[in-house]
Fold each of these.
Amino acid sequence: MPYDYLPPLLMPNKSKIVLLVLDGLGGLPLVPDGKTELETARTPNLDRLAAEGSLGQSIPVRMGITPGSGPAHLGLFGYDPIRYDIGRGVLEAVGVGIDVDKGDIAARGNFCTLDADGRITDRRAGRISTEAAAPAIARLQSIRLEGVTLEIKQVKEYRFAVVMRGESLDPALTDTDPQVVGKAPLPVEAETEAAERTATLFNAFLDQAHELLAGEPQANGITLRGFSTEPGLPKYLDSYGLRAACVAVYPMYKGVSKLVGMDVIGFQGESPADEFAAAARAWGDYDFFFIHIKKTDSMGEDGNFDGKVGVIEAVDAALPELMRLAPDVLIVTGDHSTPAKLRYHSWHPVPYLLWAPATHLQDAQTIFGERACAQGGLGTFLAQESMKLALAHALRLIKYGA
Amino acid sequence: MPYDYLPPLLMPNKSKIVLLVLDGLGGLPLVPDGKTELETARTPNLDRLAAEGSLGQSIPVRMGITPGSGPAHLGLFGYDPIRYDIGRGVLEAVGVGIDVDKGDIAARGNFCTLDADGRITDRRAGRISTEAAAPAIARLQSIRLEGVTLEIKQVKEYRFAVVMRGESLDPALTDTDPQVVGKAPLPVEAETEAAERTATLFNAFLDQAHELLAGEPQANGITLRGFSTEPGLPKYLDSYGLRAACVAVYPMYKGVSKLVGMDVIGFQGESPADEFAAAARAWGDYDFFFIHIKKTDSMGEDGNFDGKVGVIEAVDAALPELMRLAPDVLIVTGDHSTPAKLRYHSWHPVPYLLWAPATHLQDAQTIFGERACAQGGLGTFLAQESMKLALAHALRLIKYGA
């Protein structure tokens, strides 16, 4: 359990909780004395909720730590990202929509460039384009091994994910990237006796891969890292007593949601309105809805300040759809900051809005923005505390102790 | 020790610290844009202290967690309520003024209603009134067991506390409440060999109880739970170097104070002025005074917003009595929130006022209220941090490290 003291306090009721995550929501002004993306966006609906409810700012993992998407979402889901580790291979696999079940072995793969002696000359195959790497992916997908099945998908550019499925596989395996050029890729080594067969299988995979890729100009070699299996995270139903649904467009967020026991809701389209409509259709079947908006982060990574502003405004415009469902608790926040100014995830505190009309304490803030949130009544707290706050405001927790 | 690094830093001096706890102080407005109980109360004296000192808000146990009185006070006393567990039986016993020493076994008792076959038909004896249960309590008090003594007191309605005293008793015992109607109460079972004699004694108690209660219309059975002994909490003198006094009207708070080594000051009356006068009389004998005001919480639990306002105003009116003693450090806070709107303890952050004229950093806040505290200079912090702040402002802690 993320919090051992929590399960005995859980009390089921009919309340509905919505966690609306605008990925990479937090931002920075482009100029001194300027406004952030969120502060720039015209958001009458979010501002109304901010005025009625409580604001705060959340720290995704720890102060100063810039999270990847996996740890950032684990935090928002209430699981300390330092304590609960999703293996790199699993994260890449779920990120491209490959299911990883207990006992499946996932690895992150990189294409590299080898010289005639098999030594690495470029560890990322010249940062080959996604299109140029596609034929190499197809070659890898043709590999067959005795007694196991393989699923391979491209991630982006030189990166791919591979999942091996079969009996008695074990992820206690070493990475094959020597981390420097001028050396050949390392063989996979078993760290335990139980993993020896799995090591042999992956080495057979590597041998076939290098044979099949020999003709490729850039991507003629591969390395594998982050061997891991389904992490066995506690599930939302056990941790929080919540039947939880995920509404997301991108595979990564669906994948992480599945790892904590959420059902992924299928739907057409990819606009905020489409996502809210999907939540509306499933409204009766779940207690908790995680709704993920990706494009705030994508725009931030592109350095597109105005584009990020536009995505925030589109979410705001669609928000009445969501409010019509009358959630008991609505949290609007990000998993981390992605300031367009930095073109990258960052460690900055993330704006956090709690709206729960039966129980929230309205604070003095009247707009939803970074500086308003820093002055908000909820204070500054670790993202992993958020689920407890959600449960409390949903009146789903009884008193601790007499 | 609650904080292992603290004892080496302790430096005695003649300073006086007062922790004034208004139970359930934190509140909520009854209407949007309204004021809380504390914000509504006319509190010129508290407002003056707020203007001179620093405000903040404390989280009783963890974010979102609603504490009972025991854990909430442990937190204010600097003991992490998740780490330090007072057994349910001990808490009930000290709550009604029964002393529990090391080796005494306390349990919480419930009256229940049994059918002719001894099966429970109502686990709370129809929520029998306190008055109607009094004769059944008297019957239990007549029970005698070989080699041990018993002390039994009514708590309220169907609840009572029982403490068994004697040689070699052990609290590793199972609860007897089957948790459902239609089953007979369970026998006490020993969880360890060392507890077997204690189990036998409690089963003999149960047998006698059921014989004696056979004629009662509602309360003809009992269940026992939460077997526990004095928890051996570190004492204030060892943890903080403080000779500590408790000034409280209700047994529960006296009991928890004793568990951390406070002396309980006897006095007549129960008004805030009576409590402050009691502190004045003991002023020379102690370094630390915990003064507990109960009725803010009682009014909150009754849903009596105006009544809670009135209690806060009465404390404010009496405050000059306390200030005349010229404490070096005065903290005014609650153990948790009890908003009249919710009629129950809640998880909301608690207003916190620190006044220590020699050392406090006056912040920008000028009144004592929830929203002012949320903007206060001390920020938002766990209640268990408060005792360190008190010691620091009393100049009772030397530098940590060179």
Amino acid sequence: MRELDLLSRIYDSAVGLPDRVDIPPGDDMGAVRIGDSRVLVSVDQLADTVHVDLDATSIEKVGRKAITRSLSDVAAMGSLPCGAVVAACLPRDFGEERANSLFDAIRCTAEAYNCPVFGGDIAMWDHPMLLTVTVLAGGDGIAPLLRCGARVGDAVCVTGRLGGSQVPVDGYTHHLDFEPRLATGRALAAGKPVRPNCMIDLSDGLAQDLAHLCRASVVAAIVDADDLPVSRGAHALAADDPTKLWQHAMGDGEDYELCFTVTADKAAHIVGREVQGAVVSRVGTIIENDGGPSVRLRLPDGTIQPIDRLGWEHRGK
Amino acid sequence: MRELDLLSRIYDSAVGLPDRVDIPPGDDMGAVRIGDSRVLVSVDQLADTVHVDLDATSIEKVGRKAITRSLSDVAAMGSLPCGAVVAACLPRDFGEERANSLFDAIRCTAEAYNCPVFGGDIAMWDHPMLLTVTVLAGGDGIAPLLRCGARVGDAVCVTGRLGGSQVPVDGYTHHLDFEPRLATGRALAAGKPVRPNCMIDLSDGLAQDLAHLCRASVVAAIVDADDLPVSRGAHALAADDPTKLWQHAMGDGEDYELCFTVTADKAAHIVGREVQGAVVSRVGTIIENDGGPSVRLRLPDGTIQPIDRLGWEHRGK
């Protein structure tokens, strides 16, 4: 049983949804019209033993991550967070002080990103902690960026540096400490001279998430290994074998960076520059969908490798 | 560690929420303004071994209940469901066929109540199933009914019959098979001659949920044991001791009926009548908060018992 198979079953059944569903399942956020407003919604689970290790992580960082990874979805739509509701299922022996620290961290993180927690549900059981965060967002006049829309010839760009998000470097562990790219996503979506054709956040690894973009847009992509911006964590992992650098940059999950495609002329305005705190790198090009693999990698020696689904399917791991 | 203590910590911290949070934590649904719309949101968890027993329940009924118990919150606000997102954490050995049946049941139930599932998240782990359903609703011109607003002299009313929701009677098991009181809640909220002063849905048992209403409204309530509408399930449980009838009607959880208070003149229009498929019963009266227990029960012999917190705290059981 693979989570992607289950998800695709849900997406396939999106046919026949009522008109008020503006963005059906399959994007970083879904959207529904309520009154005159388009309301974007995403839901993410943070499970002890799956997405986080409570034995090895401070409770404050767990609470923080529960919110920031949901906000990464909002960033990917170029939208603004409006509020969140949080459900928690806690082991009975979790401890009240620890529970309070957890909720304080969740609330403070959410407020810091202007995303107040305005509802929730708490249950207790004899199994590991599971947090479920639902975030609501609005476009406030800017159309959300979807996964579909990439066109042949588009530059494939990413923010920040990729790979090795689990590796602590000088006290910073990216998958716990990252800043969701809300300001960058918003600036890209709002800026006519740079507005991407499509966008996604990198949670499963560039190989897999770029493949999602390609499939949604019915195109393919070629990535240049030499152009990948590699994180310090990935450098640490590949210290004994630099040829592994691109594997970590393409395959590791939980970068929580943005990946987008943009026309070549727009790309010229932003590639190599900082957009609201994040440096944009061009890593490849959108090519025609010829029925082959969605994502291909051009290695330094010029050979081209198919790399669909190299990414880390972290939710089901 | 009690879930109510944790919840009250979250509610207390609602002070200082931004203006766009219309309904802070503590009601059946919270609400936030997005654009020009007020968006109501509730989140509920359905955990195997806590809220449902997967070994003893068909997967279709599990999927159904995940949606209907969330819709009961919408009914309690007198609002209209707009859509839902569903997060599922499934044991790795759950089985694909069973997972598909579960999602089909969730989707079909949601669609039947005009509440399309437009997003979700799936994870897998080595622990029991946990479903988390977030429902969005709108007022569509009708102000939502809150828990606060009960006034001294109000009639305390309920819909349907109470207690014994776990007991199968002629193939009907209320906690699995109930219809959320969406049409009744809406008719009450929308009807000026009958609009309640406050409303809640009965998930933790009348004693506890009425106490929530009283605390939110800073009043108390007196309930007449003789006036309680008792379900067939509760009758079955109290067959050997009819004095236990009121205990089941007041204390058992998961009725998913509506409890509301309404001025005496408005009550005359609806008590003993059917409102959109649900018979309304008057079970008591709102009295002043004199610092004593929030809810008191007048027994058939005229004695009065305090019964705060008799209800079933099902989420933490």
Amino acid sequence: MITVLRLGHRKDRDKRASMHVALVARALGGKKIIFCGEPDNELLQRVQTVTYKWGGDFQAEFAPSYRTVLKNFKGAKVHLTMYGIPLEKTAKAIRKHENVLVVVGSEKVPPDVYQLCDYNVAVTNQPHSEIAALALFFREVNGPKALQTRFPRGQLRIIPSERGKNVTKYK
Amino acid sequence: MITVLRLGHRKDRDKRASMHVALVARALGGKKIIFCGEPDNELLQRVQTVTYKWGGDFQAEFAPSYRTVLKNFKGAKVHLTMYGIPLEKTAKAIRKHENVLVVVGSEKVPPDVYQLCDYNVAVTNQPHSEIAALALFFREVNGPKALQTRFPRGQLRIIPSERGKNVTKYK
């Protein structure tokens, strides 16, 4: 079970990036996303609307303090950072945990996050995207099945097609 | 060799997302990114600055017409879309090609893109992020080595560490 903690959300600036983080967490089989930073009900609602339309049990919530979330979490706490230990070297140890909290920063990550987490993990040691890093984390930790998550009770389902778009609607 | 074609870049709205797309392409071993849409020299320069600082040969350029790029490309043309055939089913065939052009849309993708490409590929059939989809595409097509790309001639290199940040500077 993987929960995502998104740090330092800024309502205007991170509108799209935080939504991308949430969508990735959901699409790849995450259980829940917790946003810290500026409260943003519109963002929570947009995530919930996706779950309502496309199915599954993914949850989104806001927490006022990342420290409280980190301190209370029972399981492995993993911070994604380009400065950390490569994912290839840490994935095996992380997979052993039943519950994982994966922490995704925005522009500036408070220094205590490095201390409060059990693993600081780099998805490549190059500058790139926290959205991509999160996706690759799910892929490495959950294996290829991350891409085959099932989403029961949705109103919409895509029938894969070679050309064009084919969406089935359920009542 | 994977080249990325980013469609419909909008200078203001896609500033960050297009940069993320470029960073992912570079970090995971892509050769080049071609942007279509609104010309944006600042974006090209930001990508080139990353390559200058962090090494490697990654290129960024602007092209006025995606149709011309698609028509002239020699190799497999792959469009990432949530409506396509799952990546797990197409990766094997795509891997056989020496040169791959992977097409990443923004908000609205012109319908002829579905026709001009050889493969329409879905990275999950769920709504998520083109940035994440691109990262997972590199991971599936290039295998785990996508995460171990080397970047010679950079000025900066990270020494992976369990806590904190360790960056070495080269002249």
Amino acid sequence: MAAGVKAAGASQPDATALVDAALAGDRLALARILTAVENRTPLAEAALRRLFPLAGRAHLVGITGPPGSGKSTLVSALIAAVREQGRAVGVIAVDPSSPITGGALLGDRVRMQAYSTDRDVFIRSMAARGHAGGLASTSTAAAAVLDAAGFDLILLETVGTGQSEVEVAAAADTTVVLEAPEMGDEVQAIKAGLLEVADIVVVNKGDRPGAQRTASQLRAMLVAVGRAGAKGAKGAGAGAGAGAGAVRPRPKEPEVLLTTATTGAGIPELLGSLDRHRARGHEASDTPARLARAEAQVWAILADRLRADLHAPAIREATAATMREVAAHELDPFAAADRLLTELRVPDPRR
Amino acid sequence: MAAGVKAAGASQPDATALVDAALAGDRLALARILTAVENRTPLAEAALRRLFPLAGRAHLVGITGPPGSGKSTLVSALIAAVREQGRAVGVIAVDPSSPITGGALLGDRVRMQAYSTDRDVFIRSMAARGHAGGLASTSTAAAAVLDAAGFDLILLETVGTGQSEVEVAAAADTTVVLEAPEMGDEVQAIKAGLLEVADIVVVNKGDRPGAQRTASQLRAMLVAVGRAGAKGAKGAGAGAGAGAGAVRPRPKEPEVLLTTATTGAGIPELLGSLDRHRARGHEASDTPARLARAEAQVWAILADRLRADLHAPAIREATAATMREVAAHELDPFAAADRLLTELRVPDPRR
């Protein structure tokens, strides 16, 4: 029962109090839980074990696209539109170029600060580096926390140029891929891979020249991607786990919408499209996206526990020595893995 | 001894012949081995086990930076300069915007094709998606193959906006971070994180207005990063493994160089800087970067084997059922991980 990190027992009372406070609407408590999740402290396990059964109701929307496509401005516009409907909205930004994580344009920061007193808007940036597979499991766990805390819509903003980041967005219930008109050849090259994971494609900066033409090009590309047959990276997200959610046929060609996030044009239409996608049977618990998220979380915990075992005092030195032998090319990594598995006393069913 | 994928035995003879051919200079055989490594087929294990002991001599250089900084043009220029010295150079491009992976500018493609008949230049793109931690372990394994095949310098090109991609470049012996002058606010925001992993910073497109100013700004930022104290993400790469290579003090402030890759200006200076960094004691087998690479590989193999175990006929259905329970929020992921660990019959030393 203990966490794979440190003894969780000591922080258990804290966790109970914090979870109760977070569920009662205490945003500071919510923030502390998310910090624990991000840092994988023992508190995180205790809190998540209590919160997880309460989650599973929110609509998780991934928003990804290349830098400069205006993701964070679109997120701001979506927040405003969702708040007008009276719904609570949470944002998890896994994006090094996001103003939320400390980056860019003053205008966006001001827009975000407009919600600093609105208890039904919760914005959180995630660094989540330094852990293979950590981005997916950390952001998924953070989404479960916001979900349990009653946020109805959760936006997962990631930059669409990294493998892990695309997988995070692709594991959402609905994946929105953003593009801007005429982003230049180099950025265009990213599109094909991104389009594979899209449920909805948005051409932002729709007031720029070429926006309509970009939308037409994207529709043509989507037909080509659709013919190629699969929503590849959606399944790829599940690869971290035990293999459910493999490549599946695209149920429906993604819509291509135009928005101008800076003026709000097209945002109501985007919200409508999100709601339709949610309603189209994507709320079932066994969708590939939900299985992929479950697997990402379970696998990350499993890996954490095995790592902790390899660090246990009894074999810590042996593990380090094995790694040094591999680094010196005196031992191949397969033989090293076999040795570590033996040290972990995992019975190998194949032998 | 069997692979964590399928029975490796059947393809063993193929592997021996292929490895012998690759070591004798057969580039098609080399390409087939790299394909196996990329796709994690049983052939990969057999080949890597033979090739790994022969590797460990090459200088592995990570080249990363935001889209538009001119990474692939710089790589082309480096190839030309290295070939003039008579050294063999391998390139592994993990970059969705790279012309090598099918993206962008015709000019660059033509430049790459110039080496299609040069047996001492080997260029390979890596998709490597769909596997948590896969990017690091796959590119590291591919580098070991090229290393064993006698390539003296191996360039690992990644786009510096994704977590996994930055970690791949950061786990090289020498990490070069590329910037272009005045890339705009949004892209500037990426810099701080990238600079943490840099051994050498290159301002490319040095003939553009503002290049000198960008270099000055970067030097100022590097002093600030240096004061903050650590080469964070270098250690982060090691996080995938058993924890060596944690945050370490930066041994020396990174140099900031100007290049104009399109004309070749500054390229000899960059090569000189690479060689100095290599000579500065970074060839030892127990550097944090080499330990991080070893750990990434070992951990990926360990994870593959455990995944295969969870997929074994005896417990495949139980695993899938557990994942469905988590997806339905009927079981928390910690309890699920504990259940799977029991199914794997891993004795938990903490209990």
